[in-house]
Design a protein that fits this description.
Elements lengths: L5 H9 L4 H83 L1
Helix pairs in contact: 1-2
């Protein structure tokens, strides 16, 4: 037998409904109340999930900012390396040229 609301059943019987109809009606209302309780729980879960998503979005935003900073530093380091190699390459060629000519 399904869950039934006793007070509703008694009120329906007192109002003149048959016991069978009152039982069925009380069971249906109890089922709706159970469904509403499930919906409330689902909404609560969604709120919790939304809060977690917002926290994760904040973390991701900070991580992206850190990544942009790191990429900027790598670009600057790459430019320095290009200058260093561009300076050393002719120096090495000059040394090799001087070694082989003398």
């Amino acid at each position: 037998m399904a869950i039934m609301l006793g007070d509703l059943h008694a009120a329906l019987v007192d109002a003149g409904a048959s016991d069978t109809l009152a039982t069925k009606a009380a069971q249906e209302v109890a089922a709706y109340e159970s469904d509403i309780g499930n919906i409330k729980q689902d909404l609560s879960d969604l709120r919790n999930d939304t809060a977690e998503i917002k926290r994760e979005a904040g973390r991701l935003t900070r991580d992206v900012a850190d990544l942009k900073s790191d990429v900027g530093a790598l670009k600057r380091d790459g430019a320095v390396l290009k200058v260093m190699v561009g300076t050393l390459y002719p120096m090495v060629l000059a040394i090799l040229f001087k070694l082989f000519l003398h």
